[in-house]
Amino acid sequence: MWRYLLAAVFLIVVTAQPGMAGEGQRRHKWGYSATYDACMNSGDAAKGITSGMNNCTNAEAERQDKRLNEVYRDVMARLDSRQRIILRRSERRWLAGRRASCAKLAAPTGTGSLSLMMENFCNLSDITERRKWLERYHP
Fold it and tell me: Which helix (H) or strand (E) holds 26?
């Protein structure tokens, strides 16, 4: 029962496209790129085929991870050595926790394509949230 409920909620969240206009260009409510929206609204992803949705989500996770790394480097550059140690430890704990929590989230759905999609979307969401947190980071 829970497996199907989790799957239904996940599909609603993933397929919703809550874009917002802002600063003259379309912005995604959750901080994802317009490229992600376009990908999810075309091809196999638009048809609800999990492999297409996974491809879009993985590509967006790579984009968001690149942005996260850029923000992390910028933040680290403005910190003193003690603050860098604290942030580096925080980042390592976050990485370990993210991997474990996303795997745990997907576990109830089994080992099929839905499980993979849930884990991929969890990773994307966590990476994006961490980037936004770092953008606001002021020790």
Answer: strand 25-28
Q: Which residues pair with 21 in a beta bridge?
A: 26
Would you kindly state where each structural domain of the chain is located, as residue ranges? 2-135
Are 133 and 126 contacting, i.e. CB atoms less than 8 angstroms apart? no
Cα 127 to the center of its chain, rounded Å: 5
Long-range contacts of range 69-76, CB-CB < 8 Å, 24 or more positions apart? 71/131, 71/134, 71/135, 72/134, 75/134, 75/137
Contact (Cβ atoms closer than 8 angstroms) between residue 129 and residue 64: no
Integer-rounded Cα radius of gyration of the chain: 17
36-65 confidence digits (pLDDT tens): 999 999 999 999 999 999 999 999 999 999
